Amino acid sequence: MASVNEGMPGEMIDRTLRIKRCAAVVKGGRRFSFAALVVVGDGRGKVGYGYGKANEVPPSVSKAQKAASRDMIQVPIIAGSIPHAVWGRYGAAKVLLMPANPGTGIIAGQAVRAVCEAAGIHDILTKSFRSNNPTVLVKATFDALKKLRTVQTVEALRGVSLS
To answer: pLDDT by residue (tens digit) across 106-135?
Structure first.
């Protein structure tokens, strides 16, 4: 159920990962509402996710896209990969992200792959543990991406030279 909207290099990449239908039973029958999970990125290190709910599918997707573009994070990318291996956790989901050599590609499931592609990561190895729920996998992936540090960032934080 993933749809991709990739335009010119200056535009954002957005992927709709999941659309859930919820039914509320009322006097006249069932009233349906929809929830959408969307990942948005610029392909150059900025990525965000959003969750939107509405009575129709298109408004829920647009709400999720707005939420995703509002809460974006910066991901350090070195030669198309990440600087070091990192674990991310959210709820029951655990995600391991490992750097890979150039040409490896994105070895990941649907949810983690969408986040990596939107961020502009080209070579990465991933493994998800415990949960396979796309919502918590995306949140666990973002937890891992927030923990990434470059050598220069660590040097600045510690006030020493690591090279």
So the answer is: 999 999 999 999 999 999 999 999 999 999
| Contact status, residue 128 vs residue 109, Cβ threshold 8 Å | yes
Fold classification of 3-73 (topology level) = Double Stranded RNA Binding Domain (3.30.160)
CATH topology of domain 75-158: Ribosomal Protein S5; domain 2 (3.30.230)
Q: How far is CA 73 from the centre of its chain?
A: 10
CA gap 158, 163 in Å, rounded: 13
Q: Which two tokens stand for residue 122?
A: 């080209």
Residue ranges of E strands in the chain: 3-5, 13-26, 29-41, 46-54, 72-74, 86-90, 93-99, 106-107, 124-130
Strands laid side by side in the 3-5 sheet: 3-5, 13-26, 29-41, 46-54, 72-74
Which residue do the tokens 């956790």 mark? Answer: 89
* Amino acid identity for residue 113 in this structure: R
Q: What is the mean pLDDT of the chain?
A: 92
